[in-house]
C-alpha cells in the first residue's frame, strides 16, 4: 500500500472485534512510533507501554469520570499502546507523543490493523490517580499523555475516494 492509499484508508475505528493483535505487528507499529519526529531528537524522553492483558484492559475501560457510562472508551480494542513522556520534556511532550501516535496509527493501517487515538479517559484516570491507571507500568517520572487502541473490526469502512482539504489554507506570496 502506498502512502496516499494509507492516508485514504486510515480512520478512527469504534467497533473492534475480539481478534487479538499479533505481537510482531505491534512490534512493527512500535518501531515506527519510535522513529517519529521528536523535538531536539530527545527520544529518551518518551516511553511506550503495551497493554494486552484482558483483565487490565477491562479495568481501563471503566471511565471514572463517567461511572454510569455504558460506552467503552476503547470500543473493545484488544491492545492498547500508551505513550508517556518524562517531566523533563514537558515543553514538547504533547507534540512528541502526538507525532509518535500519528506515525503508529498510519503504520497500523498499512499493516491491516485498525486504530483509535484515545486521550480523554486516560487523562481523567491520571488526574484521579485511579487504581487501574496505577497498574500500568510506566517508569518513574513519566506521565501517560495519550494512547492508541488497536484491533480489528467486522464492520466495513470505505476508503475516502479522494483526499479533501477540511482545513482552510492561505498562501502568502
Characterize the biggest β-sheet.
Answer: 4 strands, antiparallel
* SSE pattern: HHEHEHEHHE
Class by SSE composition:
alpha+beta
Q: Could you tell me the mean pLDDT?
A: 91
Give the proportion of residues in helices.
25-40%
The oligomerization state is: single chain
Would you mind describing this structure in some detail?
The chain is α+β, with helices and mostly antiparallel strands and 173 residues long. Helices cover 33% and strands 17% of the residues. The chain has 6 helices and 4 strands; from the N terminus they run ααβαβαβααβ. It has a 4-stranded antiparallel sheet, sandwiched between helices. The relative contact order is 0.24. The model has no long low-confidence stretch (mean pLDDT 91).
Amino acid at each position: 500500500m502506498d502512502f496516499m492509499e494509507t492516508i485514504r484508508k486510515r480512520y478512527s475505528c469504534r467497533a473492534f472485534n475480539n481478534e487479538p493483535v499479533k505481537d510482531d505487528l505491534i512490534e512493527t507499529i512500535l518501531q515506527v512510533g519510535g522513529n517519529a519526529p521528536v523535538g531536539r531528537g530527545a527520544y529518551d524522553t518518551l516511553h511506550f507501554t503495551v497493554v494486552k492483558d484482558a483483565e487490565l484492559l477491562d479495568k481501563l475501560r471503566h471511565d471514572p469520570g463517567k461511572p454510569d457510562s455504558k460506552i467503552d472508551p476503547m470500543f473493545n480494542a484488544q491492545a492498547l499502546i500508551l505513550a508517556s513522556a518524562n517531566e523533563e520534556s514537558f515543553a514538547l511532550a504533547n507534540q512528541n507523543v502526538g507525532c509518535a501516535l500519528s506515525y503508529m496509527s498510519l503504520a497500523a493501517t498499512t499493516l491491516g490493523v485498525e486504530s483509535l487515538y484515545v486521550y480523554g479517559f486516560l487523562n481523567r484516570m491520571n488526574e484521579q490517580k485511579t487504581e487501574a491507571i496505577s497498574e500500568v507500568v510506566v517508569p518513574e517520572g513519566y506521565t501517560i499523555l495519550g494512547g492508541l487502541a488497536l484491533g480489528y473490526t467486522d464492520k466495513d469502512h470505505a476508503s475516502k475516494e479522494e483526499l479533501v482539504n477540511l482545513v482552510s489554507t492561505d498562501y502568502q506570496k
